[in-house]
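Quick review question:
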């Protein structure tokens, strides 16, 4: 145990237990001025106890430690100023406002109040001296400060300047910055009399050159006047890095603990069934790439073991992950068990169903199919096949994990497009395969879990793979099948729309097919995007010689399937679609894709859409038809897509531009929501975080658990995938 931990224990033993409660055990309501209503608002910010308040760090800082001459003010600058009111009147423009002219020896500035009281008006009289703080903006009268904080300077000696930088905290409705600063001040004062555990063992902390925790927290809540605001804003200050390291460590520990818990209970061992594998490969119309062979070997090795496989397979669009999934399923089926694959959309589930039937039924394997839109009779039939074990391979959507779905003997779950599912959905599907088995050396029942194979066509940057998937083994299919042609991407403004329509006509005349992707289903005044229905009507008028289909998420499943089959069969020349076709639609003859308003989509989604073309030998093109003007971020995204067809390069760029929650599709599930750490910024720490996490679990398991509780609390379950 560390020196700090020892000294804390000695202090705790020398005093009555109630005299030195640890700050994580003291409810926020214990603070002066915190009643029930304020406590409820603080809970919304994740602040339940005094420790939570300490770890609720400022977003940014403002400098109120010096007075700036009014003449030195610049637009968008925040500053403290002092001066004398030269005039103050109510003005009537588009909005009624109280406007005061404040002047010092260097210049003057307008103070404008849109919301003011009679007493405030009476107080701000000509000749009164004020000290103000606010942000300077350009206004109708020159430089203006809207609703500044101000104090009257009756006696100069009465008011002192701040001695430290002023923090600006993340807040919510009903909690002012002043209130948060006052509360944090109270807790900082308590640090001297209450205990806050240093959870990094002292020898380890020194080895890693990490600052003491309390020292870091005190500094970050109240940085000295000479602190570098730029460094603090960038998150690069050593004290920020100390806390970011601890947070990343907690997330990594949670994932490792989850993996250990899962693998401690066991899974059915699935020895290699070579004859059925050979039969399957002989029926394929193509040979596996060396990357597919390598990943398949890794999966086979995992499935042979009596512990649950936890493997993530990632590969670029069109790299052949579905075939690898089929090989894994055959190993389970060959051993007398069931396998299930869950897809995020009905279109993708239907396509998987077609592929798996084509591949497996010649081998005598029954393929079940379960989606949310099956009619009652068909659903009952499929449920009976799954429950009896007659359906050895089951393909479906989220309907697979709903109540009433019972598997006879599920040994392998495959999650396709993992970023499109919530955590609890994956957990629920895994639970369908849980069973009890008698241990070989005892009569005690042992819980068996199904093996898990998780697939994504959205390549995950190395930094994210190291942190978000520390509980998973990763395999990468980094090779495309032979004969695939790179898709040429062009970025064109919507003012050249007629040229693009002519290009579509020419491509279809040559016997090719095309997609036209829109981001909305119906017209919306709120968004300046072409709606799919309107575009479909316009294109029908502009291209009457073509058969044009329309597909979107609001169509019934049977209608969507009918339209997709017509497009695959070549009966439709052009398919107008929403992003419902993002994943899994495979039409080799389609060589042209138009994406309207691509600036509204993330890079990963655009890359997925682009992957719907270029599946044959013909040269393929993707046209990004944007609406001007483009923001800087949108321009960067579109340029990145134009310059690269490598999914991993694009994923790294997406991570830089949008953050981990968006790239992983976890914003809606609660995963990967860091308080302080930033995956991209702090990627240099990940190797050290991984080695530290492994060491802590072995040597300091109590500290490891305490770290998880401190940073994740009840969210720890997210790791159990």
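Suggested answer, residue by residue:
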């Amino acid at each position: 145990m560390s020196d700090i931990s020892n000294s804390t224990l000695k202090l705790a033993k020398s005093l009555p237990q109630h005299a030195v409660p640890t700050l994580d055990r003291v409810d926020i309501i214990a603070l002066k001025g915190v009643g029930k209503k304020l406590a409820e608002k603080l809970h919304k910010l994740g602040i339940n106890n005094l420790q939570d308040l300490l770890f609720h760090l400022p977003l940014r800082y403002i400098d109120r430690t010096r007075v700036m001459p009014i003449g030195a003010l610049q637009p968008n600058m925040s500053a403290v100023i002092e001066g004398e009111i030269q005039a103050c009147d109510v003005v009537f423009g588009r909005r009624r406002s109280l406007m005061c002219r404040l002047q010092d020896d260097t210049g003057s500035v307008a103070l404008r109040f849109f919301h003011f009281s009679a007493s405030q008006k009476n107080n701000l009289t000509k000749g009164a001296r004020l000290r103000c703080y606010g942000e300077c903006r350009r206004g109708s009268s020159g430089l203006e400060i809207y609703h500044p904080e101000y104090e009257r300077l009756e006696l100069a000696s009465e008011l002192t300047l701040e001695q430290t930088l002023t923090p600006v905290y993340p807040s919510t409705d009903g909690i002012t910055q002043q209130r948060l600063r006052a509360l944090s001040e109270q807790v900082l004062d308590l640090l001297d009399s209450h205990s806050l555990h240093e959870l990094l063992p002292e020898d380890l902390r020194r080895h890693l050159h990490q600052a003491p925790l309390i020292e870091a927290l005190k500094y970050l809540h109240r940085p000295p006047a000479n602190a570098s605001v730029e460094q603090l804003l960038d998150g690069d200050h050593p004290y920020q890095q100390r806390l970011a390291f601890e947070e990343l460590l907690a997330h990594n520990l949670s994932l490792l603990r989850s993996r250990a818990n899962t693998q401690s209970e066991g899974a059915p061992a699935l020895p290699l069934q070579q004859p059925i594998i050979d039969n399957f490969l002989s029926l394929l119309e193509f040979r596996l790439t060396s990357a597919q062979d390598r990943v398949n070997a890794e999966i086979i090795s995992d499935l042979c073991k009596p512990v649950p496989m936890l493997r993530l397979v990632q590969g670029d669009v069109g790299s052949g992950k579905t075939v690898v999934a089929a090989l894994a399923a055959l190993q389970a089926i060959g051993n007398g068990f069931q396998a299930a694959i869950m897809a995020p959309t009905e279109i993708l589930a239907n396509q998987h169903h077609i592929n798996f039937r084509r591949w497996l039924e010649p081998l005598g394997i029954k393929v079940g199919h379960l989606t949310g839109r099956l009619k009652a009779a068909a659903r009952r039939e499929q449920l009976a096949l799954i429950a009896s074990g007659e359906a050895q391979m089951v393909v479906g959507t989220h309907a697979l994990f709903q109540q009433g779905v019972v598997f006879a003997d599920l040994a392998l779950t495959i999650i396709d497009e993992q970023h499109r599912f919530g955590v609890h959905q994956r957990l629920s599907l895994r639970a369908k395969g849980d069973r009890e088995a008698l241990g070989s050396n005892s009569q005690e029942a042992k819980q068996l879990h199904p093996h898990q194979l998780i697939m994504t066509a959205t390549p995950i940057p190395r930094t994210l793979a190291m942190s978000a998937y520390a509980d998973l083994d990763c395999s990468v299919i980094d090779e495309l099948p032979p004969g695939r042609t790179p898709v040429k991407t062009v970025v064109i403004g919507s003012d050249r729309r007629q040229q693009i329509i002519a290009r579509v006509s020419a491509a279809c005349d040559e016997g090719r097919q095309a997609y036209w992707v829109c981001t909305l289903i119906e017209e919306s005044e709120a968004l300046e995007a072409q709606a799919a229905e309107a575009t479909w009507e316009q294109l029908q008028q502009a291209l009457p010689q073509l058969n044009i289909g329309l597909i979107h998420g609001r169509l019934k499943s049977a209608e969507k399937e009918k339209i997709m089959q017509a497009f695959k069969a070549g009966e439709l020349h052009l398919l107008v679609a929403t992003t419902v076709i993002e994943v899994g639609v495979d039409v080799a003859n389609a060589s042209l894709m138009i994406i309207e308003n691509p600036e509204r989509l993330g890079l990963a989604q655009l890359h997925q859409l682009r992957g719907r073309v270029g599946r044959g030998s013909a040269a393929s093109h993707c046209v990004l038809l944007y609406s001007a003007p483009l923001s800087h971020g949108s321009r960067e995204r579109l340029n990145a897509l134009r310059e690269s067809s490598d999914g991993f390069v694009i994923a790294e760029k997406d991570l830089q531009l949008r953050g981990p929650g968006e790239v992983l599709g976890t914003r809606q599930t609660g995963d990967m929501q860091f308080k302080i750490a930033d995956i991209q910024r702090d990627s240099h720490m990940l190797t050290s975080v991984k080695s530290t996490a492994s060491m802590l679990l072995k040597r300091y398991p109590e500290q490891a658990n305490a770290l998880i509780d401190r940073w994740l609390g009840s969210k720890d379950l997210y790791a159990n995938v």
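Why it works: The chain has four domains: 3-61+169-234, 66-161, 274-477, 487-644. Residues 238-263 form the longest helix (26 residues).
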